[in-house]
Amino acid sequence: MSRRRFVLLDRDGTIIVEKHYLSDPDGVELIEGAAAGLRKLTDLGLGLVVVTNQSAIGRGLLDAERLEAIHRRMLDQLGAQGVQLEGIYFCPHHPDDGCGCRKPLTGLVDRAAEHLRFDAARSFVVGDAAGDVELGRALGATTLLVRTGYGNATDAGARARADYVVADLREAADVIARLVSAPA
After folding, report:
1. Distance between CA atoms of 43 and 53, rounded to whole angstroms?
2. pLDDT band (50, 70, 90) for residue 184
3. Catalytic residue among 10, 132, 155, 168
4. Could you tell me the pTM of the whole model?
């Protein structure tokens, strides 16, 4: 098991602009400041992994090939700003399918942690929805709710009790930087 820590990131509303059931790669748009925040996290030596529910596949609104094109576009945009992700793990299932990988269940992270050999409980989970915070809680990880995407509504509705509520990925990176540099 690696001692390296990871940041587990939601995709829509956290890294890219939330667009209800995004199905067109041309619609991929990074949230302002997201790349700068992610770059700061990698500069800290943290690994970056996206974990995302993509029920549009299970709903028949998107196929795996189109999702791959969306992810390639996001990776290209991030790469152009000096950011590399170590993996993208997604749940393609409809919410009623009863799978073990749909957030807030831990199946996606379990797979990522096994593949990349990290301790999920030592990670940071960053997202804009209650399910992201619940995932982090289930893992025993530190949770950060961003107010981008659905984050404002999630926070205002008190639907999630994150360890930290921040404006965006830039501020999340600042908080995580303080946490990783604090004496144990």
Report:
1. 27
2. low
3. 10
4. 0.95
